[in-house]
Design a protein that fits this description.
The chain is of the alpha+beta class and about 400 residues long. The protein folds into three domains: about 110 residues; about 120 residues, Jelly Rolls; about 120 residues, predicted glycosyltransferase like domains (Thrombin, subunit H), CATH 2.40.10.220. It contains 13 helices and 14 strands. The strands form three sheets. The chain has a six-stranded antiparallel barrel. A hairpin with a 4-residue loop joins strand 12 and strand 13. Helix 1 packs across helix 13, helix 2 packs antiparallel against helix 3 and helix 4 packs antiparallel against helix 5. The longest helix has 17 residues. The protein is globular. The termini are close together.
Length: about 400
């Protein structure tokens, strides 16, 4: 049963991230019957209905998506869904006020971007969000390059990007890579504040996955701030939060390749620092794996002192795939570790970055976790069988 649920959730994730496309309204309606509370699916359903020239149904789908996004604390995504709805039919003032009130009333753990939007009054918010424009980029695309004029503030609606900062050397004017960081949904970028400074980009920003951005030009934002000084204060606070924002990003790693949440049994050989010391052999399982690495929950009985003692250790990971008794052997390194309570006992969870993998193992792993050229037919065969049960 759990495996069936994981496969169904995997299908939903693939539809939302764009790796699986559904062009049939009927099939999408069947999908929504099984996942009625997923805001991302309703948003994509609205896009499909708009494409199929069904404006009334599309506005209903966008309205539902906005409501569910608000309930999930996803303010930016709710705003984008409402904008798409209002692009089809112009809203009344009462509808605008009702939407803004809903954003204010539903409080969750707030991000800097959420505080930015909910800090505005109704007139300020409408002035701001009606100037937002949406832009989509495929995986591997470039949004901004070093040396570009900074004239736009971007908000990440969905997907992931990589920002690579550079600096010029004092001698010779050469450019040297300085650092990289990941940008994910509800992050922002674009160095347009303070407004009186002319700034050029000190970084390249490229997409890791398919990305949707909401953007506002510097000139439009300045005009809004002249009329509504409170918005200028909020913009300033948004940029002041940058240090905290960046610090949190340093603790996370974006999933650069598609991952599947399928529980898979593994065994792990952890090599000790001292030469000749016997490696530790432990068991566990992974629910999160890609071609680049895996997150492993170690067996509840495993104890090795503080979890951070594992970080930096070289490992050999053996993965048992439930297809034809396939067993993969992959070398890697533990890049992070932490302690969690699992089944009433304290155990460790480790993040492993793969270092070496044979071409054969890579092909098997890719086929199992990502699918072949006939993936969509395979997924829908699975979906049909799930819907019948």
């Amino acid at each position: 049963m759990n495996d069936r649920i994981h496969k169904r959730n995997s299908l939903v994730n693939r539809i939302i991230d764009g790796s699986v496309t559904i062009d049939s309204v009927t099939k999408f309606e069947d999908l929504l019957k099984a996942f009625p509370d997923d805001p991302g699916l309703h948003r994509i359903y609205g896009d499909l209905l708009k494409k199929e020239n069904s404006p009334n149904a599309a506005t209903d789908a966008y309205e539902t998506a906005a409501k569910l996004f608000i309930e999930s604390g996803m303010t930016l995504q709710a705003i984008v869904s409402k904008l798409l709805e209002w692009q089809i039919f112009k809203p009344s003032q009462q509808e605008e006020q009702a939407f803004c009130s809903a954003l204010y009333e539903e409080r969750h753990e707030e991000s800097a971007v959420q505080r930015f939007f909910t800090g505005m009054t109704y007139p300020e918010m409408m002035a701001f969000i009606t100037k937002l424009m949406l832009e989509n980029f495929p995986a591997g695309g470039r949004v901004k390059k070093f040396g570009d004029e900074e004239n736009t503030l971007y908000f990440v609606v969905s997907g992931a990007l990589e920002e690579t900062d550079y600096h010029r050397l004092e001698t010779g004017g050469r450019i040297q890579k300085k650092s990289t960081r990941d940008l994910i949904e509800n992050d922002f970028f674009g160095e347009i504040y303070p407004f009186d400074q002319e700034i050029v980009s000190q970084s390249d920003i490229n997409t890791i996955t398919r990305v949707e951005l909401a953007k506002i030009s510097k000139s439009n934002l300045m005009n809004i701030c002249r009329k509504y000084p409170n918005v200028k204060l909020l913009v300033g606070n948004l940029y002041k939060s940058r240090s905290e924002f960046v610090e949190k990003k340093a603790m996370r790693t974006v999933r650069r390749t598609a991952r599947q949440k399928l529980p898979t049994q593994v065994s792990l050989k952890i090599f000790q620092d001292e030469t000749g010391k016997v490696p530790l052999d432990v068991g566990g399982f992974t629910e999160d794996i890609s071609l680049g690495g895996a997150q492993i929950v170690l067996g509840a009985k495993y104890q090795t002192g503080p979890a951070d003692n594992l970080t930096g250790k070289n490992v050999k990971l053996k993965i048992s795939l439930p297809i034809s008794s396939v067993r993969l052997s992959i070398l890697g390194i533990i890049v992070w570790s932490k302690e969690v309570c699992f089944e009433g006992k304290t155990t460790s969870v480790v993040g492993i970055q793969f270092k070496e993998m044979t071409d054969t193992d890579r092909g098997v792993l890719q086929e199992y976790y990502y699918g072949s050229a006939g993936e969509q037919n395979l997924i829908w065969s699975l979906w049909d069988s799930l819907m019948e049960k």
